[in-house]
Amino acid sequence: MKENMYQPFEVIFKELDECPKDGHSHNFFELVYIISGTGKQCVNKSTFNYHAGHMFLITPEDCHSFDITTTTTFCFIRFNDQYIKSNYRDTDISGKNERVKKLEFILQNANHQPGCILRQPGDKALVKPMVDSILREYVNRDLYNKELIEQLVNTLIIVVARNIAKILPEHVSEGTEQRAVNILQYIHQHIFEPEKIRTDLISRHFGVSENYLGKYFKKQTGETLQQYVINYKLRMVENRLLHSEMRIGEIAAEMSFTDESHMNKLFKKYKGLTPSDFRKSAVSA
After folding, report:
1. Which of 176, 225, 163, 164 is nearest to 200 (CA)?
2. What global pTM score does this model have?
3. For tag attachment on the chain, is the N or C end more exposed, with fewer CB atoms within 10 Å?
4. Which domains does the chain have, with CATH numbers?
């Protein structure tokens, strides 16, 4: 099920005891801020335990839902590409175009995994009073409230973009060719289907030779395609170890490793710890 929005921008506050919708996707971006409450966020088959102060970015095509444990007050900020194009004004037209392209690139290439998008402690402290101000203007409907809300939302989007930019794949930026970005997105989309991310199938899907694909991918990202897939899968393993109660064997099966032993060896090789030790160290930290 896909949800549509017929305006460039809207803000919604809701207090919910249960999620009104099962897994669904949008044709727009959605920032979700947790004002109070606890539960789990689910995005693209992955989960994250949320609490007050967390903010999530749902991008178009992400399948998501919330499993609410305690009554949760949400702030939903929804916007589309047209909102970005029309609201980030610049006196220099060429400068505006580059700025908008950069912002669109960053938002479109978020990780598509669950978890708070605010990675910098200082930004978490910055966002809360802005959301509080949006809520106050939303409730009071005072003079110029719409203009103030729009300015606050614009600032929130920039803060979120800054946090995403810091965790984009190494060597991938707004200067990366669109075809390389499409390949990355294809890998992310099919990471649970190893038969679809073989080099020969990716080559066929994008209409390039296997030899050219390998050289092109390495030039654009700084990693071989195989190395990128491994690193991406291990980041997803980390996410499950930190934010889920899945057993090690269940994670290995979901990520299509040969078996639990195979995942353990690979994880230790790249991370220096076994998955079990990694989870224990995170709990005790």
Report:
1. 225
2. 0.64
3. C
4. 2-165 (2.60.120.10), 178-284 (1.10.10.60)
Alpha helices in the chain (DSSP H): 81-87, 93-108, 121-140, 145-165, 178-189, 199-206, 210-221, 225-243, 248-254, 260-271, 275-284
User: In a 10 Å sphere around its CB, with 0-12 CB exposed, 13-18 middle and 19+ buried, how is residue 22 labelled?
Assistant: exposed
Residue 92 DSSP SS3: coil
Tokens of 170: 């190494």
Euclidean distance between CA atoms 87 and 100, whole angstroms: 9
Cα 145-146-149 angle, rounded to 5 deg: 85
Q: Nearest-5° angle of CA 257, CA 200, CA 222? A: 75
* 28-61 confidence digits (pLDDT tens): 889 999 999 999 998 877 788 899 999 999 888 7
How does pLDDT run across 223-243, given as a tens digit for each residue? 899 998 998 889 888 878 876
| Type of residue numbered 117 | I
d(CA 217, CA 219): 5
Least confident of 3-17, 29-43, 48-62, 156-170: 156-170
pLDDT tens, position by position, 138-153 = 988 888 988 999 999 9
